[in-house]
Each structure stands twice: as structure tokens, then as C-alpha cells.
Amino acid sequence: MVGGGQLARMTHEAGIPLGIRFKLLSDTPQDSAAQVVSDVVIGDYRDLGVLRAFAQGCDVVTFDHEHVPAEHLRALEADGVVIRPGVEALLHAQDKGVMRERLSRAGVPCPRHRIVADPEDVSRFAAEAGEGDGFPVVLKTVRGGYDGKGVWVVRDVTEAAEPFRAGVPVLAEEMVDFARELAANVVRSPHGQAVAYPVVESIQVGGVCDTVIAPAPGLSEELSGTAQEMALKIAAELGVVGHLAVELFETRDGRLLVNELAMRPHNSGHWTQDGAVTSQFANHVRAVLDLPLGDPRPRATWTVMTNVLGGDYPDMYGAYLHCMARDPALKIHMYGKDVKPGRKVGHVNTYGDDLADVRERGRHAADYLRGTITE
Fold first, then answer.
1. Which of 34, 165, 214, 334 could form a disulfide with 200 if both were Cys (CB 3.0 to 4.6 A apart)?
2. What is the mean pLDDT of residues 224-237?
3. What single-letter DSSP state applies at residue 124?
4. With bands split at pLDDT 50, 70 and 90, how would you rate the model's confidence at 341?
């Protein structure tokens, strides 16, 4: 697996019961996964020589992020390295402009959008896409953004200059009037077997995922089925192998629009570790190795994943004592990461039959582990 973050850490954990030998390419020995994987190569994923050396002896190479240059992946494929998802699929998660063009061509509903050249072009797009002057609009750098980075909401042409300073193409999108954000998670194997998890509600705070509720409360069976079918269609159309997260807007008038794609385990699927028969991580391992996929059905009526963000930590041992004693059913997953304000350093999963209770238990634990509350 290329990338040493928490997604690699949890994917490695899922492969242990199957006896999977796991090799990691990590930036530093301190990275989340590098702390627990025995076979770690320290190197820069942007260096083709490093990638080629790393891939030797691997049956398959997969990723915990989308940032490996496409030209390097093509070179590896030309060398005979098995890459899953392949570069032609992964490109749609690397480049938002490519993703929007391809999904629109396939008839998948997306926000109105186009690549813009400069702030004046943003103004022209806004007039085309909305009423009046069309502002506000959303601007995104086509590559490199995540967790709210590389995304701007601009309210007039004077605010539109900053995104162009990144030196990469800028995608303009209409500002969608959405009721909430959803995510449809699916997994697809090389021979086309696919499974779909329940559609979840994803609650963002400051552009970062805060809470995921599985299944999405109040979502009709019809709209849930539409979201799952949309995700399965995208996986098949793009030739995805492994886990695919399709982040969606549910509009106030009852439509679904695709926001983002991720071709790897995803924050919106962390609830599956404790809330599904087969987790997203286990199914990603199965898919990239072309093993039969596992059952994605939920184990409980409700499962809530609450992210633990960096803050002023109390003594972690003391925090564990409190949280575990208060809620013996709580599932804590910490990533071994250095604490930085707003950084994802762990998550907790709670589950049960009463959604309000499940949410409160998750919120309390996450806040206590962060140090926001102390009782």
C-alpha cells in the first residue's frame, strides 16, 4: 500500500486475519501505518525510482491516497505491476475536472460546472449558472484538495483571485442549495462483483467530516436505492477495483448530485469497522486481491462514527478510563498521530437502537478524548 496514513493502518489490520503480508511505502517512520506494519519502505511516492523498487515482489499495489502522479502509475503498469484501482480509474479521483467531464458524459447528475481561466471567467460562469450575477459560486483546484483544502466559496469577482495562485486549473461549480450531504460506499472486484453499503449522512464542520450516521436518517428507500445504484454505476463505468466512496448532495427539492469521489477506504465508511458484517477495509483487501466480497449489511439499527480531532489532550490513559467505564460498548480507534488543531487523530463508533442516544454517546466520547470536556 502506498501511503502511511490511518487508512493504510486500518487496511493492514483488516488483512491480518487473512494472513495477508503487507508492505508499506511511507513518508516517515512516524506515520500512522508505519508504526504497526512490519515491512515498511521509507521514501517519496513522487519518485518513480522509489515506486519501482517498492513494487518489486508485490502481488498488487493499492493506495491510501490519490496523490501518486499518473505518469508514474502508467510506468508501473507498463512494467507489469498490478495496480488497483488502475491509473485510468484513479485519474477520476485525482482530477476533479476529468471526473466532472466523465460523469456528465455518463449521465450522472453533477452540479453545473466548467474549468475557468481567470476571475473574469468566474464572473461569466456565475452569470451562466445562476440567477442575477450568479454568485456565490464554488471554486476548486482540480488536483490536491481534501478536507476542505483547495475549495473556496466566492461571493464576487474580487474574491476569485486566490484559487488561481496555486498554478493548477480551477474548476467552477454552482453553489448547490443542499439539505444535507450523503455518501454511498461500494466495493468492486476485478471480475465485476460489487457490494453496496447503506447510504450514510455525513456531517461536516469547517470542511472536515465530523459525524457519520449509518444509515442516513429519514432517507427514503427509493432515494437510498438511487444513490447505491449511482455509485455502482460509477464504479463499473470507471473500472474501479476496490473501495469507492461517492460523496453526494441531497438537494432541497429531492435530487442527488455527485460532489466528490474517493477510490480508497474513506472516512464515511469508518463506521463499518464495528457496524457492518464486513468492513470497508476488509472488503477493499478482498477486492484488490480478487477474493469474494463480504457481506456489507449493518449489524445494528444505527451506527454513528464521530471523528476525534486534535485539541488540548488530557492524559490519554485517564481519558480511556473515563470513556470505557462510562460506555463499555464504545469502540475507540486512535491513529497514533501527532496532535495538531483540527487534525483527524482518531474516531469512535457507537451503535444501538436509539439514534439520539447513539449520537450523544459518540459526541461525548470524541469530545472527552479531545479534551473539550472533562466530565
1. 214
2. 98
3. H
4. confident
182: Cα separation from own chain's centroid: 12
Indicate the pTM of the whole model: 0.95
Angle at the Cα of 349 from the Cα atoms of 369 and 275, rounded to 5 degrees: 170
Grid coordinates standing for 108? 450522472
Same domain for 342 and 196: yes
Domain that holds residue 53: 6-83
- What's residue 157's pLDDT? 92
What is the C-alpha separation between 99 and 106, in angstroms, rounded?
A: 11
What pLDDT, in 10s, does the model give residues 27-82?
A: 999 999 999 999 999 999 999 999 999 999 999 999 999 999 999 999 999 999 99
Q: How far is CA 174 from CA 47, 347, 368, in A?
A: 37, 32, 38
Compute the distance between CA of residue 266 and CA of residue 261 in angstroms, rounded to an integer: 10
Q: Which of 159, 174, 189 corresponds to the end of one domain? A: 174
CATH number of the domain at 11, please.
Answer: 3.40.50.20
List of E strands, 167-222: 170-174, 178-188, 194-196, 200-205, 208-214
Please indicate, yes or no, whether residues 137 and 192 belong to a single structural domain of this protein. no
Q: What is the DSSP letter of 339?
A: P
Provide the β-strand partners of residue 61.
83
pLDDT (0 to 100) of residue 144: 75
Distance CA 149, CA 207 (A): 8
